[in-house]
Amino acid sequence: MTSAAAEGQVCPPRLYSHSRLQLFRFSAVSWNSHRIHYDAEFAASEGFPDVVVQSTLHGETLSRYALEWAGPGARLESVSWRNRATAVAGEKLTWTATVRTTEPCDEGVRVTLDVSVLKDDGAPCVTGQVGLTQL
User: Could you tell me the superkingdom of the organism this chain comes from (predicted)?
Assistant: First the structure.
């Protein structure tokens, strides 16, 4: 980010997808042993087209891209989200965000973002808010 955040500002979108390997590794480090997140055959038996993205990985992605947008030295204050639809390995997703509020503080500017993860057809997969301090 090259300038101060302004209310209503739309952040540049981030396009991405999660690989099966990434989902397997995230399950391991987060101690999530549910097979739908790493076993494609089991996920298919449960009605999913591939292994399922973990809810907590959505939260991590919302936070990581918000911090990247905010620039060096930005500090995460809060993150909250709601899963709206299931995402699976290899699915094209887009992180989007709009600045909801800005407030000067001793450390810089406290910013609240309305964040979303959108599926390829534009339908929301995840919606939420990220709070951060931007230096």
Answer: Bacteria
pLDDT digits (tens, 9 = 90+) for 95-118: 999 999 999 999 999 999 999 999
**Segments making up each domain of the chain, as ranges:** 9-134
CATH class of 9-134: alpha beta
Three-state helix/strand/coil letters over 69-109: HHCCCCEEEEEEEEECCCCECCCCEEEEEEEEEEEEECCEE
Q: pLDDT per residue over 55-97, tens digit each?
A: 999 999 999 999 999 999 999 999 999 999 999 999 999 999 9
Beta-carbon contacts of 15 under 8 Å, excluding residues fewer than 6 positions away, are: 92, 93, 94
